[in-house]
Amino acid sequence: MQTQNVPTEGLQGIVGKEHVREASAEDAVDGVEPSLVVEPGTIEETSEVMKLASREGLAVSVRGGGTKMGLGNPPRRVDLILSTARMDSMIEHVPGDQIVRVQAGLQLQDLQDNLAESDQMLGVDPPEEGATVGGIVAANSSGPRRLRYGTIRDLIIGVKVVLADGTVAKAGGKVVKNVAGYDLSKLFTGSLGTLGVIAEANFRLHPIRETARTVFLEVDEHAKIANAVQELTHSSFSQFVLDALEMRWEGDRGVIAALFEGIEPAVEAQSSTAVEVLRSHGETHILGEDDGGEFWERFARRPWDAGDVGLKIGAPPSDLTAVLDSVVGAADRAGVGASLSGHAGTGVTFAGLSGGEEGLVEVVGEVREIRLRRGGSVVVQEAPLAIKEKLDVWGSAGDYLGLTRRVKEKFDPGYTMNPGRFLGGI
Amino acid sequence: MDRGQLIETMQEILGPEGVIHKREELRTYECDGLMNYRVIPDLVVLPESAEQVQQIVKTCYDEGIPFVARGSGTGLSGGALPVESGVLIVLTRLRRILEVDIPNGRVVVEPGVINVWVSQEVADEGYYYAPDPASQIVSSIGGNLAENSGGVHCLKYGFTTNHVMGAEVVLPDGSVVHIGGGKSPDAPGYELLGAFVGSEGTLGIATKITLRVLRQPEDVRTLLAAFKDTEEAGGAVSGIIGGGIVPAAIEMMDALTIEAVERQVSPGFPEAGAILIVELDGPEAEVESQFDQVIKVCEDNDASEIRIAEDDEERALFWKGRKAAFGAMGSISNDYYVQDGVVPRTELGAVLKKIADLSEEYGLRVANVFHAGDGNLHPLVLYDNDTPGEADKAEELAGEIVFACLEHGGSLTGEHGIGRDKMKYMPQMFTADDMDVMQLLRCAFDPHRICNPGKIFPTPRLCGERPGPFHMHPVQKAGLAENF
After folding, report:
1. CB distance A173–B409 less than 8 Å?
2. Best label site of A216, A313, B324, B336, fewest CB within 10 Å?
3. What is the domain partition of chain B in residue ranges?
4. Which of A168, A318, A403 shows the shortest C-beta gap to B444?
């Protein structure tokens, strides 16, 4: 790691003395320790910080709630952590327009609490506690309800960003329907702080639904999960009827759960129909709103703990049996423990792997090789540094890597933003 | 390469039938759905495969010749307006539906496939393609992708960008990339697909497109409600949305539009100051309960008449009236200018009032038909081209209307695009920095600015390349150096 002479005084001059502090070991990003943590309070300050960082050749990592700091390849360098913690207000909420404008550092939970007063919500539900809105956009985090509402890229309608050179630019607006100019809100979604700082974002909102029912089913074979999922998604439960369709697999048993939200007579009818549909697959259960809430809190958790390897597998939903077979099979052969969960309705599977280093790397390799043949991707979302050093967390990029690099080099030619962390070492 | 050589090269790629170069034949392609702008291209080419598109683009790149892609040519912002001394690539022969994958809810099509064909293809399986622009019986999926088309049902189901899951794209340098996961979700890397959809043909040409199809809703119910004026109808819209209902569609027409539609297609609409068409779809129990709620809101807002579509036939009649609105203006005016602006829903009343004032001030009639649920207005400015100066006056009035939309926190365009038509207004909505940063994306995709140049941005940004038309250095051309 290169060390850089960090201009502490210059930064203090921009954001105030109390908002610049020396970094500690806890601020390290995959073992790389930054020198300083800076907390700008406004877009203007953010812009000045970026100008100074670019001028001085500092590498900058943006941090929101810090819940996704483990995502990505180990950075080539981090000199400054730019924290959005102080930029945490809801700027504008117009209930009648069902839109909200927020600063990036606002925590999702605070936003949801605020919106709930108007019976509205932002339709994302990633499981990480303490995640900020900006972090969710940057990491493209999602949860079970993506089946109905899509991911954050489907809900974001405008963005204000600060580029590495300090340029402040906006795209989109605060109306849901808008095709003026390029949709940079989507480009910045999932960009993991490598294109610029997401300073503000605008979203479309949805009404909070009156009540909910959860239907779940226990099974003992991978194929039974896939069959039940296929049957549910191709009955009268289109993507806009079911709110979530999730699965978990641990040991030798699995559970499939479907969430229905809406008005009482509707969820009552839908959950009864779902039970009919699922009955032939195994024992089914129905939960009301309160029991369902507790159930989902456990069910939506990622299937890994600190120190494990966590994979996110994207595959065609009809290929779910093969996904489960490939992970469990490879883990068994390598003597590695595996538990799985996932958004079965949309084809996202999470795998938590625990065991010896060598075995873990082997399993990732094997699962990737199968996915490469059958279509899809395998991203290592969480892993100890020792494992990250042995593999690329993003896997092989497609034929769009060259284009990806050109995009990066136009927005951040000096590789100031989170260097090394993204796809292809960007 | 002179024009003769270019024609020859293109004929080698496409055969003689695939190249149009006679001036009188080229005239067919001089404009798209926006007829105020006309440019005769140097050459029109009609590829039949993705490989041919790639060869055409590669030739253009090597020779520094600008090109424009065109689908069915129904666009209303001049997005497919040809460039002089450029090649127009018409994609209407790429019209195969390549794959239907019901288990994954995906259909893979070529760009020339007509929007409505997709729903027809999967209807027997109980599926449909949600985005439904009014032009859907003629407009192509490639064009829909370029414009990020909306439609009457996008309030609930989203726009084209929410239903395009992957694309094979020929980049302006002739290389091919596959962006978006297609059948698999969450492909790693930047959201290039999200940035590409709606880029109005300025970043490349999609040659294969993976679409999401949805299960047909269990139940659909539609009503038509008549009101004294747009203000009362607007009150009903707020009441419905404010009640937590997300209708599949909610459309408004004012008195002038109703008059025109009656003359043209006679749907038998009631005489009224404003009409709302509200459609709910989804599970039967939900639709039934919410439909009663909608009826009550309409009554509370003094609806003079509420008609409920008794069957598919009557529903189709309601929609026929709505979808005929633009074309029907011909029955009450010689000429008309279609505007497309967006305002936050809560500002609808104020902006409609402003439009009425402007109409009076300019002495030109303005008919209003719009997607009320998402605040997307389509004011139709009526004028007579034979009256000197009136066309200019109409355009000016249409401009004032979008400025009013911006003043109230809205957008220059909700679904028709900026294209050639609204470039001049972009600085009213975006700062120079905003537009410069957007064009960084352009520079990454199309550094030599040969892909649909002269659209969207009033001031093209240089990409760190030499200014002026692009000519490849001989050394680079010979493959001796990559960048010179």
Report:
1. yes
2. B324
3. 3-90, 97-215, 218-331, 333-421, 426-477
4. A403
